[in-house]
Amino acid sequence: xxxxxxxxxxxxxxxxxxxxxxxxxxxxxxxxxxxxxxxxxxxxxxxxxxxxxxxxxxxxxxxxxxxxxxxxxxxxxxxxxxxxxxxxxxxxxxxxxxxxxxxxxxxxxxxxxxxxxxxxxxxxxxxxxxxxxxxxxxxxxxxxxxxxxxxxxxxxxxxxxxxxxxxxxxxxxxxxxxxxxxxxxxxxxxxxxxxxxxxxxxxxxxxxxxxxxxxxxxxxxxxxxxxxxxxxxxxxxxxxxxxxxxxxxxxxxxxxxxxxxxxxxxxxxxxxxxxxxxxxxxxxxxxxxxxxxxxxxxxxxxxxxxxxxxxxxxxxxxxxxxxxxxxxxxxxxxxxxxxxxxxxxxxxxxxxxxxxxxxxxxxxxxxxxxxxxxxxxxxxxxxx
Length: 384
What we know:
This protein has 384 residues and is α+β, with helices and mostly antiparallel strands.
């Protein structure tokens, strides 16, 4: 009788928590086009947030329902809702932009110089975080590689510089390409300030390297945001960013960068020949309690054409997403420096692979294509 009584007491305390834990699923679309909106932040609180995938789909684990959700994207009007259901379909209204006359102007240059001055003052500040990283590769539309890692991190405004992987999985099928060390490129590109590996407009030589134009402005609450086009004006051998910076015109905070990486390093050996077609980068930042820009996510997409001697050509695609889940100084223990020779694949292969853990922890909802790719890769012979 005592054992039964104790068991009932335990159920009495645990059952409410078991029933309250919920996973909200949904899709976010543009109210006019009905197209899915990618990379929308869906947040219940500091510990419960995610971003939508490229199709606008999302999943978010919350403590209980109902709960308050904030839905935000820099190009759309934010909304706040009380979620009562586990299935949500949401529509966002695009922010109206004021188009500027597209000419080279001192105002654009002045804004970028002010942003650089602000950024360089805090270049040594560390922002410790729990992060998630996903890479998936396709050769001729066939999935050949997946690497997913939960890790603790040290992010600075020019790069993610240290990490400590805590959970990971590495799946690989037959491939002509090695994908080792590619995570370093995403980490090094995640900042908005220039670094020694990738040149960006925010540097000490910004006005000698780049030309700047204000493409448009828009209001985000009481703030004015300028979209500034940044184009390199000199011949440059080093890999560099070219595209748009989203800047607050009063605080000079960088909120987003969106463009391409020129001269991205892609090499091949032996009978293989690879030519890069696209290297597209999107990085978005939010403001912390000290009004400083910190990384939300960074997405790098590489598309190339590979020629195999005597076997014709085929397309290669690599999709990489770096997502910061939570910032806290508690994540600063035992971090190791990340370098361009850091072997991420070897690190992942040496960790225990738990298939059940990954099925229940997608973090960013996988697309149907990604789910199918994972199924194929899990059935392949090389699983770590």
